[in-house]
Amino acid sequence: MSETPQIDTPVERAPDVGELTPPDRTLMGPGPSDVHPRVLRAMSTPLVGHLDPSFVEIMDEVQELLRYAFRTDNRWTIPVSGTGSASMEAAIGNLVEPGETMLVPTNGYFGGRMKSMAERAGGEVAEVDAPWGEPLDPVDVERAFDEHQPDVFGFVHAETSTGVLQPNVPELTDIAHAHDALVIADTVTSLGGVELRVDEWDVDVAYSGPQKCLSCPPGASPLTLNDRAMDKVLDRKKEPRSWYLDLSLLEGYWGDDRSYHHTAPITNVYALREALRLVAEEGIEARWDRHRSIAGDLKEGLQNLGLEMNAPDEYWLPSLNAVRVPDGVDDGAVIEYLLDEYDLEIAAGLGDLAGDVWRIGCMGHSARPKNVEFLLAALEDALAEQGYDA
């Protein structure tokens, strides 16, 4: 019997990995956006324990700042430890009980993700249809409620895949509440960038991500629930399938008791606090105005290059501009050229719009005139390389 040959495996030797030197990109895609230097500095400050009295004070401050950004007085306003998908799953996984029905939209990629999460939570899913690139029509929402009588209704306020901003939010929430349903809003690409009024619009639950209009690294993701929604969470007949995202347990850590549940991402909470301080210093309404103004310049410049926006003007989402790829132009080649030649990031389309649009963000610290001027000049060059005459 022959002996097994000895192989020098990677496990047996230390990896030779050099110093971390990522490229210095200008981030103008759908997220992450450029991070403000003050936020980066906050992340370099000393760690403390996640139950340290000083950190508890920081937790309180983050919650107050989040309430300001969401425009809410909701007591249950927290950053979920994880990316925006974690706050999304916390919302859906806690509000949708097995056997209940959730109504979700079909007008974008993230409505499809709502569907997947609701099904994994044990719920039944009904859909309200609208074409990709258009908002939900309240008439269609009303019809879907009459047909399916859902327990929970989810909609995407700012659809990152299509560049569409959902109007008439109070009308949608009125329909849902008239049918005794709870409302979950995806505000991942709107919080801190476009008008959002959780209390005034009567939204029961809103989740978001920190890496878009808040210009904060991912890792601690905003979530807010009103008392009606939290009562349902606390009165569930069956525990949520996720222990980690069980809001009845997280309430013990972020509520009055501050009891141990998990080790929070302390550095990310520092970062979120500083990002939210920047929002408060600028003023939330002034911040909405800045995004619309700077993105308006971007939109005008794109149209001057002969490019067409995917969303009509009345549904245009300033923080995420979906731009139609011209005939004869390779969308991926343009993206690669911008990255290689300019260290500039934009992104391709998702789902039904893959290959048909570019997604250009104008969010948070990235929403600055110099970034818009840089992007337009670089994009004109990239298009010329493709033989496109602007």
Describe the SSE topology.
Layout: E1 26-27, H1 37-43, H2 53-70, E2 76-82, H3 84-95, E3 101-105, H4 109-120, E4 124-128, H5 138-148, E5 152-156, E6 158-159, E7 164-165, H6 169-178, E8 182-186, E9 205-207, E10 219-225, H7 227-234, H8 247-254, H9 266-282, H10 284-304, E11 320-324, H11 331-342, E12 344-345, E13 347-348, E14 357-361, H12 369-385
Parallel strand pairs: 1-12, 3-4, 3-5, 5-8, 8-9
Antiparallel strand pairs: 2-10, 6-7, 9-10, 11-14, 13-14
Helix pairs in contact: 1-9, 2-9, 3-4, 5-6, 9-10, 10-12, 11-12
What general form does the structure show? globular
How far is it from the N-terminal to the C-terminal residue, by CA? 73 Å
Helix content: 25-40%
The strands making up the biggest β-sheet line up spatially as 2-10-9-8-5-3-4
Largest sheet: 7 strands, mixed
The number of domains is 2
CATH class of the largest domain: Alpha Beta
- Which ranges are low-confidence, i.e. pLDDT below 50, for 5 or more consecutive residues? none
| Element-by-element helix/strand order | EHHEHEHEHEEEHEEEHHHHEHEEEH
CATH level-4 homologous superfamily of the largest domain:
Type I PLP-dependent aspartate aminotransferase-like (Major domain)
Mean of pLDDT: 96
User: What Rg, in angstroms, do the CA atoms define?
Assistant: 22 Å
